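Reviewer 2 asked us to include a model.

Predict the structure of this chain.
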Amino acid sequence: MISSLDPDPLSALEARIAAAQKAQVPSEGRETKYTAASLGWRMVLELVVGMALGAGIGYGADSVCGTLPIFLVLFSMLGFAAGVRTMMRTAAEVRDRRGEGARLGTPPRADDARE
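Predicted model (structure tokens):
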């Protein structure tokens, strides 16, 4: 049964829904505060995982072949190179997402404006 005190119950309901939706929207300041830190940890993790996988593959190849230091050193270097390459790809992805020519944490230089 509709109360006779409220002439338009739908407008009151819409106002309550709008207030609830506004309260659920996350603040942008907190999101951007943690984005740089999460990006940094992601890049470090990519490097460490690349090196660990390379060392693991190298150690496994050395244990199968019986030549302990050769493949371990070789694949560790390849894992490091793969980790650095993945980090660069992540940095390029972030640069493209932020806009062309944007650099992470550095102000634009004078010669960037001429490009």
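DSSP finds four helices and no strands in the chain. The chain has a mean pLDDT of 80. We have added this to the supplementary material.
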